[in-house]
Specification:
mainly alpha; 21 helices; globular
Length: 492
């Protein structure tokens, strides 16, 4: 029987950052800590100061478990932002002084992001142009830095615009910036939406707690069951470009489109659910994007917190559609190129964002002609098919190791393609096909199905809730891979 020293040593091992096993929402370690967190949070909930300090401490510990001592970088960013926002709000502050404070904050946040995320990318391109022998800097990208940097940027701009009052205390701002459900992979939270919730100190109702639990269950099923399982085959296709026949390559391409949706929307569901159980509301981040009727509709449904952020802080400040059609197309392209680069420091992401920009510009240009086309079932189907084909093919460039690999994989679809391969594929990948069919079918459910299913779960007896929970855990245990797979968007 282990002694106390050994027990404390084992517990301490779980509390120390392990770069090989960062804390994830889909890991048992997180849920064990969350079970301890919630009762203590409930005790402190009525005392705003103590509750805020506790949540900030837990959030920083969570981030430490995700990214190690980069948690200190998050603390530094929050201190700089808060002090400069306070300076901007001092009585008698001139417009020039306020603008200087805003610029200083933006430079501080964006320079840190640029160094860790883009230094090697720009240095590599510089050496490629001058013919130098580039040796990459030994840099580790802090988890979630793109997400909390965008929150930092929107906060300081909104304070400058006087759209939002600055956080009253550093603790309040740190709560906003480090709130652990949304910290490492969104949704991107806006200060004008979240700071009032901290000040209201509203307790979650029983219905909200159960709705949050339902969202967590859905998110776990999407991520730990569907996304992680179908990824096992998708990885084979993308890791060996050109090695698979036409039908197999096509299944890998479509499979990745479903994987990235389940992976990212599953994380968002868990984040929204955890926050709701705590009494906070986060914005919806996905709205069945693969049922979009056109590319503009897709970006109204996919990663909504990012697309609206890009619209409000890049597209509209550039002029939006207020300065003529030509300028509107340029603004769209610049916005989507920046959105692509936000996803990663590689030309494939720039290409992905740029082609989406071309698609958005083309849709805007064709809007007058499309308005005259009869609205029939066939036309709606054709619009959906064109949109989904465009989006799915671009995901190949997003996932592949390089543009060359992406073109090889796409080219494989036309090589030896035969529907006769379906039987052999189904015989070896039946569960893969079933899980794919589940997520495809979910996109064609009624638009209010999500709300109605949550309401059903809230109304069910506790025994049914327990059964649903146990079945979810069992599914995860049966289908999980050997290691807990990080969320795709952790790398951004």
């Amino acid at each position: 029987m282990p002694g106390f020293a050994e027990i404390f040593t084992n517990i301490g091992r779980y509390l120390v950052y392990d770069p090989e096993a960062p804390m994830l929402f889909s890991s048992g370690t997180f849920w064990a800590l969350f079970i301890v967190f919630m009762p203590l949070y409930g005790i402190l909930r009525s005392r705003v100061l103590q509750m805020s300090a506790f949540v900030v401490a837990f959030s920083l510990f969570f981030y430490y478990k995700c990214s190690g001592w980069f948690a200190l970088l998050l603390v530094s960013t929050s201190l700089v932002d808060w002090m400069l926002s306070q300076a901007m709000n001092t009585e008698g502050a001139t417009r020039a002084f306020r603008r200087g404070c805003m610029v200083l904050s933006l430079l501080a946040s964006l320079s840190v992001l640029a160094f860790f995320k883009y230094a090697n990318f720009f240095l590599w391109n510089f050496h490629a142009m001058v013919g130098g022998n580039f040796q990459p800097l030994d840099l580790v990208l802090p988890v979630g830095i793109s997400f909390y940097t965008f929150q930092s940027v929107s906060y300081i701009i909104d304070v400058y615009r006087k759209k939002v009052q600055p956080a009253r205390t550093w603790l309040e701002y740190a709560f906003f910036l480090s709130f652990f459900p949304a910290l490492v992979a969104g949704p991107i939270v806006r200060a004008d939406y979240f700071l009032p919730q901290i000040r209201q100190n509203r307790h979650a109702t029983a219905a909200e707690v159960y709705t949050g639990l339902w969202l967590i269950i859905i998110g776990v099923l999407k991520k730990a069951v569907i996304a992680d399982y179908i990824a096992q085959y998708n990885d084979l296709v993308f890791d060996a470009p050109g090695a698979y026949c036409g039908f197999e390559a096509l299944m890998g391409i479509i499979g990745y489109a479903m994987q990235i949706y389940c992976d990212f929307s599953g994380y968002s569901d868990m984040a929204v659910g955890i926050a709701l159980m705590m009494g906070f509301r986060l914005a919806q981040n996905f709205d069945f994007p693969y049922k979009a009727s056109n590319i503009s509709d897709f970006w109204h449904r996919w990663h909504i917190s990012l697309s609206t952020w890009l619209r409000d802080y890049i597209y509209i400040p550039l002029g939006g559609n207020r300065k003529g059609k030509g300028r509107m197309y340029v603004n769209l392209m610049l916005t989507m190129l920046i959105g692509g680069l936000w996803h990663g420091a590689a030309w494939k992401y720039v290409l992905w964002g740029g082609v989406h920009g071309v698609g958005l510009a083309a849709h805007k240009a064709a809007a007058p002609a499309l308005a005259r086309v009869p609205d029939s079932v066939f036309i709606r189907f054709a619009g959906w098919l064109l949109t989904i084909a465009f989006v799915v093919l671009l995901w190949v460039f997003f996932r592949a190791g390089s543009a060359t690999d992406a073109l090889t994989i796409i080219g494989s679809v036309g090589r030896g393609f035969s529907l006769g391969q379906i039987n052999a594929f189904a015989a070896s990948r039946m569960l893969w096909l079933i899980l794919m069919a589940v997520i495809v079918a979910a996109h064609f459910l009624p638009s209010d199905f999500r709300e109605r299913s949550a309401q059903w779960f809230v109304r069910t007896p506790w025994m049914i809730k327990l059964i649903v929970f146990i079945l979810t855990v069992q599914c995860v245990l049966e289908l999980r891979s050997a290691d807990v797979t990080p969320f795709i968007y952790f790398q951004f």
